[in-house]
Amino acid sequence: MLKQDKLKIPAINVNDSVTKSKFDNLYGCRESLIDGIKRATDIMIAGKVAVVAGYGDVGKGSARALRNFGARVL
What we know:
The longest helix has 24 residues. The chain has a two-stranded parallel ribbon with strand order 1-2. The chain starts with 17 loop residues before the first helix and ends with a strand. β1, α2 and β2 form a beta-alpha-beta unit. It has one domain. The chain has 2 helices and 2 strands; from the N terminus they run αβαβ. By secondary structure, the chain is mostly helical. Its cofactor is NAD(+).
């Protein structure tokens, strides 16, 4: 649109930014993972053993969230 002179104001593609992706992957999954597990299973996470396969940003956030709720994370 910019090259065609149809873009009348500056625009930034936030969705594809590295900062947004890192933030969403690391912190966003912390909230949604625990919420999803609790809603789907209606069980307490504390004292359970959880396996996190992969340790990228999503895995790190997931492992930390599970640990914070008392799970033993492998």
